[in-house]
Write a structure and sequence with these properties.
six-stranded mixed sheet; 30% helix; alpha/beta; Ubiquitin-like (UB roll)
Length: 544
């Protein structure tokens, strides 16, 4: 068989593909899930990949969906790419555990009171599982000593069925076999990593007696094997927010079938047990003054909470800040630009692991838009200026990066000697506007429902992988949060995982999570009469 070699950058691996074979099919056959919402017809653009070497000729679909500049930089649609020679590619929105930077720890210490409350309540081992839309983190815990033994983090394999929760809801609803497929790929990956953790730390599988799991409500439904379709259609109500413990074997675990699985409770909409776990870890329910908790990710969860009030909502921020649907977007892997700054009139890019820039991850995207807003290269409306419209005080380095070709404007963040570039386009800016408007609308809505002004909020805790990597200045400059919150914004890391561990180690914390979830009043943004007008008003960026 005449084969060519495809090197998967960042995966430390390569695959053999029959010459002329379809790249999307070949990569999926190798066990890597690339999203393709259109079924490989070349109409959705979700399966973007970048050729670093050996790019095939661009198709009409490539030019239409990606644009001429991106095509020149090596971007192609995997579903349309026929491989004719050896090549090297980057898969932007998917990465293996070895290279995908996944936040596993929280920035909030466990209190001594919590430790005393749960001293030696169990023996053996357990695992806490934080199931995110994009990533999964598994913690192996010594229950007798109430301490973490090890941690494993990996990309959620359900990305093969869609980058966001809506895509997965639609896929799982197409029949029992597809629902089982979505569940089994997740359960299988979790068990594989837990078994490897136990082996690495010398823990017998028979001693792993309890598992706790947290996630947004779509993830919890899919993990439990329940069709999440009601979450995808109005009025967006879950089949369950709480479930009784269940044997792991019922969910499809095999080597850990004997363990008992407890799902922490959710609230409603997409406010899931991950938000409840985060609030539990922060201990905000007992605070006198209100605090705002925001879990920033593909799905945003926002709660304002104090001793007297608890109001929350969920909002579909979309996967833009995960690198999806961004012209040069990629996941937080080696080579992703994570910081963009202007220094002495020149642009400075920092990448994960310090290597050559390959694309933009979420924090880099937010920084890039922030820099251009400050310099007036992006107007509050979101319009990117053309070369002839650049303000006179813009330094020459930034001025030279503003380009226009065939009416298509873009800002060149990076360009190598071969002409391959990392771009910020008008369409990318629009994706940022949609994401930030969703978060801002949600934050303003819960504050209004709670009768709280931004000035009354004592602290803002921002959790989640993307949220914890975002600078407070970028959150404010983009208008994602009100300016009145300046100086009170604190990244807290993976507090959802910390809450899952507390509920695993201390049964009293699990009961507290149930009480907290029942306290939170869920606000459905879609049912608010002013939602559309408020969302539209927040599409604008703040005036400089």
């Amino acid at each position: 068989m005449d084969v060519v070699r495809v090197v998967l950058h960042g995966f430390q691996s390569e695959i053999d593909v029959q010459r002329g074979g379809n790249l999307l099919a070949a990569v999926r056959a190798a066990g890597l899930g690339i999203d393709s919402e259109c079924g490989g017809r070349g109409t959705c653009g979700a399966c973007r990949i970048r050729f670093l070497e050996g790019a095939p000729p661009a198709t009409s679909e490539d030019n239409l969906l990606l644009g001429g500049e991106a095509v020149k930089a090596g971007w192609r649609l995997a579903c349309q790419a026929s491989v004719e020679c050896d090549c090297r590619i980057v898969i932007p929105a998917l990465a293996p555990a070895a290279t995908l930077r996944i936040l596993t720890e929280a920035a909030v210490p466990e209190s001594a009171e919590e430790r005393r409350a749960g001293r030696r309540l169990a023996t053996g081992y357990g695992a806490a599982i934080d199931i995110g839309t994009t990533t999964v983190v598994c913690y192996l815990v010594d229950l007798a000593r109430a301490c973490q033994v090890g941690v494993a983090a990996f990309a959620n394999p359900q990305q093969a069925f869609g980058a966001d929760v809506v895509s997965r809801i639609v896929y799982a609803h197409q029949g029992g076999e597809r629902l089982a497929e979505v569940q089994s790929c997740l359960v299988g990956a979790i068990e594989e990593h837990l078994v490897e953790l136990c082996s690495r730390h010398g823990v017998s599988l028979e001693t792993v007696s309890n598992l706790t799991a947290v996630g947004n409500l779509t993830m919890m439904h899919l993990f439990r094997g329940v069709d999440p379709w009601p979450l995808g259609v109005a009025p967006y109500r879950p089949v369950f927010t709480e479930t009784p413990p269940v044997a792991a074997g019922v969910l499809g675990f095999q080597r850990l079938a004997h363990a008992r699985v407890k799902l922490l409770p959710g609230v409603g909409g997409q406010i899931g047990s991950d938000a409840v776990a985060g609030l539990l870890a922060l201990g905000l329910a007992g605070w006198r003054k209100p605090s705002l908790f925001i879990d920033l990710g593909t799905n945003g969860e926002i709660v304002v909470l104090s001793r007297r009030m608890a109001v929350g909502c969920s909002c579909a921020a979309g996967p833009a800040f995960e690198g999806v649907h961004i012209s040069s977007g990629m996941a937080a892997v080696a080579g992703a630009v994570e910081r963009v700054e202007e220094e002495d009139g020149r642009l400075r890019l920092d990448t994960i692991d310090g290597g050559p820039p390959l694309g933009l991850c979420g924090s880099g995207l937010a920084d890039a838009v922030t820099v251009l807003l400050r310099r007036g290269l992006i107007l509050p409306s979101g319009r990117l200026l053309g070369p002839g419209q650049v303000p006179a005080d813009v330094p020459s380095d930034l001025r030279a990066r503003v380009r226009e070709d065939g009416g298509q404007r873009r800002f060149v963040l990076y360009e190598d000697e071969l002409g391959k570039s990392i771009l910020l386009t008008q369409a990318d800016i629009r994706q940022v506007q949609l994401a930030k408007a969703a978060i801002r609308t949600g934050a303003e809505s819960v504050l209004e429902e709670a009768g709280a002004e931004p000035e009354s909020i004592e602290r803002v805790f921002v959790g989640g992988a993307f949220g914890s990597s975002m600078r407070a200045e970028s959150l404010l400059a983009l208008g994602m949060l009100p300016e009145a919150l300046r100086g009170r914004i604190h990244p807290v890391g993976n507090v959802a995982g910390m809450g899952a561990k507390l509920a695993l180690m201390f049964p009293g914390r699990l009961r507290a999570a149930r009480r907290l979830a029942r306290r939170i009043r869920h606000v459905s943004l879609a049912e608010k009469p002013d939602f559309s007008s408020r969302f539209a008003s927040y599409l604008r960026f703040p005036e400089s």
